Amino acid sequence: MAPMAGISDHPYRLLTRQFGAAYSITEFVNAIDVLSGHPYLVTQRLAFSDRERPIAIQLFDDQPDRLVLAAKVIASYHPDIIDINMGCSVKKVSNRGAGAGLLREPLKVAKIFSDLSRTINVPITAKIRLGWDYPSRNYLEIARIIEENGGQLIAVHARTRKQGYGGKADWNAIAEIKSRAGIPIVGNGDVKSLNDIGRMFAQTGCDAIMIGRAAIGNPWIFKQVEKQDLELNEIVHIASQHLSMMCTFYGEPVAFQLFRKHAGKYFNPSLLTKEQRKSFYDIQSIDQFVHTIKSTYSADQQT
Ligand SMILES: Cc1cc2nc3c(=O)[nH]c(=O)nc-3n(C[C@H](O)[C@H](O)[C@H](O)COP(=O)(O)O)c2cc1C
């Protein structure tokens, strides 16, 4: 499963691993917060269990020295991998040169990977995009620099920073990177169905596939089961298991609030009336949630 802030937290990672996802990657973590010892990091973002291994903790920053200091702190949590975010397109991150902003500074990328791989005794990987915008696509150069400076795996979200999440992912670019790389390449972008998994492997030759948005509300994709083939009862059962895991991790009121994002993907609320939608999102207990779902959806309405 792709790292997704607000989605791929400890409970959802555990669930998707039970369904067959290959390894866990945390939501991105700001190196500045790591160094300031932000309490939210320790209790939430950096929380993982041994059942998740192999686990990668993903860091973002634009300063090589700070990344090294933060990676030293992160290494004390004993992850199996430290991943550097070079794909975040959010303005607040990329405009200050972090996330996809790093793609504009190949020399800095070289320093980051060389410093990290020399000083940190944990494999360092990267998650990149194809470039800042179409004219400046530099993915081959960036991938080469990462590999030459000790990076051990590259996940490629096959869009530019400018594309955000729109347009189409360019899988041919993943194939180009894979054909030149000596390290594993993970393909990412627009894998929405089981059919897409086969197509991406065939078209790119990549070593693994990373699934983001299509995995929200759909852990079954990791079991290679089509959600449309499931009974409503199975979806309700897993969604309530997920909600219960979130309650254990966050405590009830927070979990109910955070689960809304998932609920809207497990079940399609656009099929509901305004009144139904209100009760659907107004979760007060797991039993009430299950009851609401079952009473508002008939089997032929499920997504
Ligand atoms: C809600 C959301 C949060 C995301 N957060 C992160 C993140 O923390 N780190 C990261 O590397 N990518 C993040 N991404 C990007 C995804 O990992 C992935 O590259 C992107 O969604 C494309 O894959 P997809 O087409 O399968 O969704 C996020 C994407 C979404 C939709």
Overall number of strands: 8
Order of helices and strands: HEEHHEHEHHEHEHEHEHHHH
Structural domain tally:
2
Helix content: 40-55%
Main beta-sheet annotation: 8 strands, parallel
Number of discrete helical segments: 13
Mean pLDDT: 94
- Name the beta content range: 5-15%
CATH class of the largest domain: Alpha Beta
Content-based structural category: alpha/beta
- Please state the CA-atom Rg, rounded to the nearest Å: 20 Å
CATH H-level superfamily title of the largest domain: Aldolase class I
Distance between the termini: 21 Å
In CATH terms, what is the fold-level topology of the largest domain? TIM Barrel
Short description:
With 303 residues, this protein is of the alpha/beta class. Helices cover 45% and strands 11% of the residues.
Layout: helices, strands, pairs:
Layout: H1 10-18, E1 24-25, E2 29-30, H2 31-36, H3 39-45, E3 55-60, H4 64-75, E4 81-86, H5 91-94, H6 106-119, E5 124-128, H7 139-148, E6 154-157, H8 171-180, E7 185-188, H9 194-204, E8 208-210, H10 232-250, H11 252-266, H12 274-281, H13 286-296
The structure holds flavin mononucleotide.
Flavin mononucleotide is lined by residues 2-7, 27-28, 58, 85, 87-88, 127, 157, 188-191, 211-214.
How would you characterize the overall build of this protein?
With 303 residues, the chain is α/β, with parallel strands linked by helices. It folds into two domains: 10-223, Aldolase class I (TIM Barrel, Alpha-Beta Barrel), CATH 3.20.20.70; 230-301. The chain has 13 helices and eight strands. The protein has helices at 10-18, 31-36, 39-45, 64-75, 91-94, 106-119, 139-148, 171-180, 194-204, 232-250, 252-266, 274-281, 286-296; strands spanning 24-25, 29-30, 55-60, 81-86, 124-128, 154-157, 185-188, 208-210. Strands 1, 2, 3, 4, 5, 6, 7 and 8 form an eight-stranded parallel beta sheet that branches. Helix 1 (10-18) packs antiparallel against helix 10 (232-250), helix 4 (64-75) runs parallel beside helix 6 and helix 10 (232-250) runs antiparallel to helix 13. The longest helix has 19 residues, at 232-250. The protein is globular. Bound molecules: flavin mononucleotide.
